[in-house]
UniProtKB/TrEMBL annotation, chain A:
This is P-type ATPase C-terminal domain-containing protein. Residues 250-263 have a biased composition (Polar residues). It comes from the Eukaryota. Residues 250-273 are annotated as: Disordered. GO terms for biological process: Golgi organization; phospholipid translocation. GO terms for molecular function: ATPase-coupled intramembrane lipid transporter activity; metal ion binding.
Automatic annotation (TrEMBL), chain B:
This is Cell cycle control protein. Residues 1-32 are annotated as: Disordered. One of its GO terms (cellular component) is endoplasmic reticulum. One of its GO terms (biological process) is phospholipid translocation. It comes from Pleuronectes platessa (European plaice). The chain crosses the membrane at residues 47-73, 332-351. The keyword Plastid does not apply. It is found in: Apical cell membrane; Cytoplasmic vesicle, Secretory vesicle membrane; Golgi apparatus; Membrane. It holds the Pfam family CDC50. Belongs to the CDC50/LEM3 family. InterPro entries: CDC50/LEM3_fam. Keywords: Cell membrane, Cytoplasmic vesicle, Disulfide bond, Glycoprotein, Golgi apparatus, Lipid transport, Membrane, Transmembrane, Transmembrane helix, Transport. It comes from the Eukaryota. It is a multi-pass membrane protein.
Length: 273, 372
């Protein structure tokens, strides 16, 4: 619950720039077609990042817990407190990384991020409470761990340190890449901040013939068959106007950018029917 | 053929009965024109500009460095003294005890070590015993306990959990407390004497209550109900294999510290995370008045050496330590904070310089030419 929902919210609601800007700059779709986001290089980068984060998330708590005790002298370097510390650091790091990756902060994904952190702490304290221990003794042996370790400033400083050590290199690398090699997304986003929203392009009635545009679908991973289909190699030599239109041209997304402005589009009578 | 498009109605049904051609869909699957479904929610769209990143790095550096310095100074002010009493070397006083130690000894072997404290210890002093190369975090070891039995459940008392195998039954009787963790309870006894300048030995009072977590002592561990006399309450069970005395004789002088709620036992049962660990043994209360709790000078540590560790190359030691708000002496956090803070600070400065250089040559974001 507290790891899956924020990612879901990110994938559902995130967007680089809104749809009007996307129409203005169709080059934004080129990274998807060029397979930039799902290549071996991207995968290796991801693996390196994970390896680095795992090392930080283990060794920082390990070094901080080594021969340490609580502020009233009692033990804190026990198995359960160490596990809790590592897991809490992990949750905080994951949520912070998610916030870094989110470029479109809506109320919904804010709710999921903060909600997942809150749910984590709520569930942890519930699982480690007296009540759960008394009811299901062998299933909840971690009783008291959250209360006794999370009230130590030592523990919170360790969590803070591991979070920053995981996040700061990512921020630094991204910032450097932004300056040296900005991608098309970054450039458009930068432009978005400076200029006003472009006006929606007026809807042109398309000519009544087969489209000669290249078929450009946004999430293609390879070139697709657009080139082949529109090369007109397979067309019969017949007059074009006898072909019926396959889809009514009422589904224009641009039209929907102007709310409360619904248009009625009527088709010409098709002479052959 | 006329197909007309009107505003989408609630049920998605295209109105009009006349003129339905093949092109008009019976039910429109178009999503609603709401902000939520058309991804037009009001949003904040941050990007990593120099104006945010550089000050952020500076601020983080400025916050971390003082915290690090504070942690480091606090850690340095904590006084700690550690003495290894395993007796591995033949010139150590505990060498003979180390070579003869085993679980079957009935008489305790005694040895004593002299040491000197160069600085006085103020305020409460905590005495710990430390073990090395002892893997309390081994998976089978950690699972080898019965929390229901330790909670005082009468069924679990007579029939412990299977996880405790092979320390579940001894002969025909169930073991209380069962499991490998309880079986390997640390049973050395340590006493501390201060040698005055004129030669008299003063026993330093060691407090044995208040060393375990409150939740452990009062909720997690409970003696079996039914009888105040623990000998009767534990009838039908037997002591763990490696123990000298049964559990109801851990501290006969104090019924609040006897049986499962014995604090030394509770502290041991809280398994350590790392192979080198320390556990709280006793507390030396601070004295009222100006005298330090442990004045500098000569001390003698008397050990009842019961716990064999040489078979697995383990080490035993005694640690005396004062405490602060960050716990015991641990310079790591202070050093780490100072390091990270300085790196951030310099990176912030470095970035600023690099960014200024790049911008002066290329313009911001390489000049936003989108005609590529």
């Amino acid at each position: 619950m507290y790891t899956a929902l924020p990612i879901l919210a990110l994938s559902l609601f995130d967007q680089d720039v809104n749809d009007r800007w996307s129409f203005q700059y169709p080059q934004l779709y080129s990274p998807g077609q060029l397979n930039l986001y799902f290549s071996k290089k991207a995968f290796v980068r991801c693996m390196l990042h994970s390896a680095y984060s795992s090392l930080i998330l283990f060794f920082i708590p390990w070094a901080a817990m080594h021969d340490t005790v609580r502020d009233d002298g009692k033990d804190i370097a026990d198995y359960q407190s160490f596990a809790l510390l590592a897991q809490t650091s992990l949750l905080v790091v994951v949520n912070t990384q998610l916030c870094l990756d989110t470029y479109y902060w809506t109320a919904v994904n804010q709710f999921f991020v903060w909600g997942s952190l809150a749910a984590y702490f709520a569930i942890t304290f519930t699982m480690y409470s007296n009540g759960m221990f008394l009811i299901f003794t062998s299933s909840f042996p971690f009783m008291g761990t959250a209360r006794n370790s999370l009230n130590q400033p030592n523990v919170w400083l360790t969590i803070f340190l591991s979070t920053l050590l995981c996040i700061l290199p990512v921020v630094a690398i991204r910032f450097i890449l932004l300056q040296i090699r900005p991608t098309i997304n970054d450039k458009v986003r930068h432009k978005v901040r400076k200029e006003a929203l472009p006006a929606p392009t007026p809807h042109r009635k398309p000519a009544r013939r087969i489209s000669t545009r290249k078929s450009g679908y946004a999430f293609s991973h390879s070139e697709g068959f657009g080139e082949l289909v529109t090369s007109r190699r397979f067309l019969l030599k017949r007059p074009l106007k006898s072909r019926p239109v396959l889809f009514a041209t009422t589904e224009s997304p641009l039209a929907q950018n102007q709310p409360q402005h619904y248009r009625t589009i009527t088709e010409e009578q098709d002479p052959s029917v | 053929m006329a197909s007309s498009y009107n505003a989408k109605e609630e049920d998605g049904h295209v109105p009009g009965s006349a003129g339905h051609g093949g092109a008009a869909e019976a039910k429109s699957k178009k999503p609603d024109n709401t902000a939520f479904k058309q991804q037009r929610l009001p949003a904040w769209q941050p990007i990593l500009t120099a104006g945010t990143v550089l000050p952020a790095f500076f601020v983080i550096g400025l916050i971390f460095i003082p915290i690090g310095i504070g942690l480091f100074v606090t850690s340095n002010n904590i006084k700690e003294f550690e003495i290894d009493y395993t007796g591995v070397n033949s010139d150590s006083p505990c060498y003979s005890c180390a070579t003869n130690a085993s679980w079957n000894n009935t008489t305790p072997c005694l040895c004593s070590l002299n040491f000197t404290l160069s600085q006085p210890f103020e305020s409460n002093v905590y005495m710990y015993y430390g073990l090395s190369n002892f893997y309390q975090n081994h998976r089978r070891y950690v699972k080898s306990r019965d929390d229901s039995q330790l909670y005082g459940d009468p069924n679990a008392l007579k029939s412990p959990s299977k996880e405790c195998e092979p320390y579940r039954m001894s002969g025909a009787q169930p073991i209380a407390p069962c499991g490998a963790i309880a079986n390997s309870l640390f049973n050395d006894t340590l006493e501390l004497y201060h040698i005055e300048p004129n030669g008299t030995r003063n026993l330093i009072p060691l407090v044995k209550k208040g060393i375990a977590w409150w939740t452990d002592k009062h909720v997690k561990f409970r003696n079996p109900e039914g009888n105040d006399n623990l000998t009767v309450a534990f009838q039908g069970t037997t002591k763990p294999v490696n123990w000298r005395n049964p559990v109801y004789e851990l501290d006969p002088s104090d019924p609040e510290n006897n049986g499962f709620i014995n604090e030394d036992f509770i502290v041991w049962m809280r398994t350590a995370a790392l192979p080198t660990f320390r556990k709280l043994y006793r507390i030396i209360q601070k004295k009222s008045g100006p005298t330090p709790t442990l004045p500098s000078g000569n001390y003698v540590l008397n050990i009842a050496y019961n716990y064999p560790v040489t078979s697995f190359d383990g080490r035993k030691r005694m640690i005396l330590s004062t405490i602060s708000w960050m716990g015991g002496k641990n310079p790591f956090l202070g050093i780490a904070y100072i390091t990270v803070g300085s790196i951030c600070f310099f990176l912030g400065g470095g970035f600023k310089q690099a960014a200024l250089n790049i911008w002066s040559v290329h313009g911001i974001l390489g000049g936003v030419e989108l005609s590529d």
